[in-house]
């Protein structure tokens, strides 16, 4: 396997899906280094391999401002990793899972003993699955409960042979900057630097904003002309990639994604608002994609009260995160809500939809998620 991440990146440039950027190319090469080291460190097959531990592989902490291509590079890397012992998740969601498991252990009979170690109880089953690679999107630390947990958590994960690849908007030395009792967090920064190469991504421009520059992101009406307009916008957002089916993992189940590519997802209205989904699911979607296209948003009268409520929650989640929205609507925005049960809430939704098509909104980056352990 020769430089698969760099090859995939060069292929995107060759078909004009991306503009060649030296910093992105350097990052692709470093990701290829991580992948090559992981493959070289695999235990041998057969009886001897049962007693071998994989060699430790130094990971990567890739940082840069929003829209510089970090998520796209992580996509290429994760797809190139050929083994199953890998996991990719948003940092906030990963820590949410950790806190949930810690809370559950403390409530268990084992957790009540004086020598109980909840971190060990969380890490042990993770490593027992054989997980070798953990990819964390948008690594950031604002919450003191996470800050005080990370050193012990990752000390055990790294000691168990786990390799970390992470993206972030800040350098490690600025994590939890000005946070309460920050001196207690500093050992984690040192640990992170020892176990990951730290690489800046000073790309030349915000590529995410270029996707939407000068575009009409909403279409109104039905029929082939509206669909064609959405198809053209989708291809612009994805750099010409038609996309492939995928899924978003949420609370132990999978939400089907009809098409996803280059950090964007395309859904039909029915896929999101006429299925049993809730706020937690929509937040997961907002964390996983920087752009979402929704086809066929209908007028919502009393016969669609449940769908209208989900649509309100969906727009709130996308808006709070700063996700870019493209959509086709059967009627103008001011005619969307025709259900008196949701009339008040829908006023806010219409206001947000109006703002989400503005140049100002489209020109902003994603907003940090608020860390809130269970």
TrEMBL record:
<dbReference type="Pfam" id="PF03969">
    <property type="entry name" value="AFG1_ATPase"/>
</dbReference>
<protein>
    <submittedName>
        <fullName>AFG1 family ATPase</fullName>
    </submittedName>
</protein>
<dbReference type="GO" id="GO:0016887">
    <property type="term" value="F:ATP hydrolysis activity"/>
</dbReference>
<dbReference type="GO" id="GO:0005737">
    <property type="term" value="C:cytoplasm"/>
</dbReference>
<keyword id="KW-0547">Nucleotide-binding</keyword>
<keyword id="KW-0067">ATP-binding</keyword>
<dbReference type="InterPro" id="IPR005654">
    <property type="entry name" value="ATPase_AFG1-like"/>
</dbReference>
<dbReference type="InterPro" id="IPR027417">
    <property type="entry name" value="P-loop_NTPase"/>
</dbReference>
<dbReference type="GO" id="GO:0005524">
    <property type="term" value="F:ATP binding"/>
</dbReference>
């Amino acid at each position: 396997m020769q430089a698969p991440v760099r090859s995939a990146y060069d292929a995107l440039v060759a078909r004009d899906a991306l503009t060649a950027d030296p910093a992105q190319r350097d990052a692709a090469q470093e990701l290829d280094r991580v992948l090559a080291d992981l493959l070289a460190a695999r235990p041998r097959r057969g009886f001897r391999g049962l007693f071998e531990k994989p060699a430790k592989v130094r990971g990567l902490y890739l940082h840069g401002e929003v829209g510089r291509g970090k998520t796209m590079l992580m996509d290429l890397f994760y797809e190139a990793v050929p083994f199953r012992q890998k996991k990719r998740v948003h940092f906030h969601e990963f820590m949410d899972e950790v806190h949930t498991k810690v809370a559950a252990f403390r409530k268990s009979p084992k957790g009540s003993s004086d020598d109980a170690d909840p971190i060990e109880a969380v890490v042990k089953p993770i490593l027992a699955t054989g997980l070798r690679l953990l990819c964390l999107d948008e690594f950031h630390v604002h919450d003191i409960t996470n800050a005080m947990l990370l050193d012990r958590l990752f000390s055990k994960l790294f000691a168990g042979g786990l390799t970390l690849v992470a993206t972030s908007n800040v350098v490690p030395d600025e994590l939890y900057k000005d946070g309460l009792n920050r001196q207690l967090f500093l050992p984690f920064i040192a640990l992170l630097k020892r176990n990951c190469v730290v690489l800046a991504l000073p790309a030349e421009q915000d590529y995410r904003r270029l996707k939407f520059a000068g575009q009409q992101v909403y279409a109104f009406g039905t029929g082939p002309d509206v669909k064609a307009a959405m198809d053209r916008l989708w291809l612009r957002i994805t750099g010409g990639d038609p996309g492939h089916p995928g899924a978003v993992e949420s609370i132990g189940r999978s939400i089907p994604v009809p098409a996803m590519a280059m950090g964007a997802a395309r859904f039909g209205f029915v896929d999101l608002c006429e299925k049993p989904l809730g706020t937690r699911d929509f937040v997961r979607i907002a964390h996983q994609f920087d752009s979402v296209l929704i086809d066929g948003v209908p007028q919502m009268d009393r016969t669609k009260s449940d769908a209208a409520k989900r649509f309100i929650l969906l727009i709130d989640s996308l808006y709070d995160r700063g996700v870019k929205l493209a959509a086709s609507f059967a009627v103008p925005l001011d005619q969307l809500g025709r259900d008196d049960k949701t009339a008040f809430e829908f006023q806010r939704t219409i206001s947000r939809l109006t703002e989400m098509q503005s140049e100002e909104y489209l020109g902003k980056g994603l907003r940090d998620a608020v860390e809130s352990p269970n």
